[in-house]
TrEMBL record:
Domain of life: Bacteria
Residue spans crossing the bilayer: 34-52
Keywords: Membrane, Transmembrane, Transmembrane helix
Protein name: Succinyl-diaminopimelate desuccinylase
Keyword Membrane recorded: yes
Species of the source: Pseudoalteromonas lipolytica
């Protein structure tokens, strides 16, 4: 599962892009959504990396 975690931001960004297009919102206006997605994905990845380091002896 950890190996496919890199797909999380890609899938979420594509979903956000499709949401913006469906609601006819300009990409410039929805730019913050992409930033939030990338930051949240980085936090999730960092948490899992920390848990791997903590649990390895």
């Amino acid at each position: 599962m950890f190996r496919i975690l890199f797909l999380l931001p890609i899938v979420l960004c594509v979903a956000w892009y499709l949401f913006l297009k469906h609601n006819r919102v300009p990409i410039k206006q929805g730019k913050n959504g992409f930033v939030y997605i990338l930051v949240a994905s980085a936090l999730v990845l960092g948490f899992f990396l920390l848990m791997i380091k903590v649990t390895q002896h």
